[in-house]
Amino acid sequence: xxxxxxxxxxxxxxxxxxxxxxxxxxxxxxxxxxxxxxxxxxxxxxxxxxxxxxxxxxxxxxxxxxxxxxxxxxxxxxxxxxxxxxxxxxxxxxxxxxxxxxxxxxxxxxxxxxxxxxxxxxxxxxxxxxxxxxxxxxxxxxxxxxxxxxxxxx
Length: 154
Hints:
Layout: E1 5-8, H1 14-32, H2 38-41, H3 44-53, E2 55-61, E3 64-74, E4 77-85, H4 94-103, E5 112-118, H5 122-130, E6 134-140, E7 146-153
Parallel strand pairs: 4-5
Antiparallel strand pairs: 1-2, 2-3, 3-4, 5-7, 6-7
């Protein structure tokens, strides 16, 4: 694996980001028995709107987008989400690199980072804890899915 170069995604990347996102979230859908997870039902227009309105980073190796994620500031918090790593590139440290790159986009006034995942997503929970995040609450998501919210200070 080459080292990914992270940069902001543009509108022209929306289709590839959506394809990557769908490929990456299939395993989550199977884990939860839920084919309608939001990252799988999002449309091209919605991804393009996110690219225009939020910080969407893409990680590129050899001309291919292999990782993507989003960040937006709400109050003094940088909300991170929609992490996607190409299935053939998972378990190689790209997720941690993506999170770090997204955290680096925090501007002045950001005092904490926040993200969430499902309670059954053990690999993601371990990754987030390795990246310094700790659980601060749980809340219901889609039927049968409990969401785990994690945070860390800047």
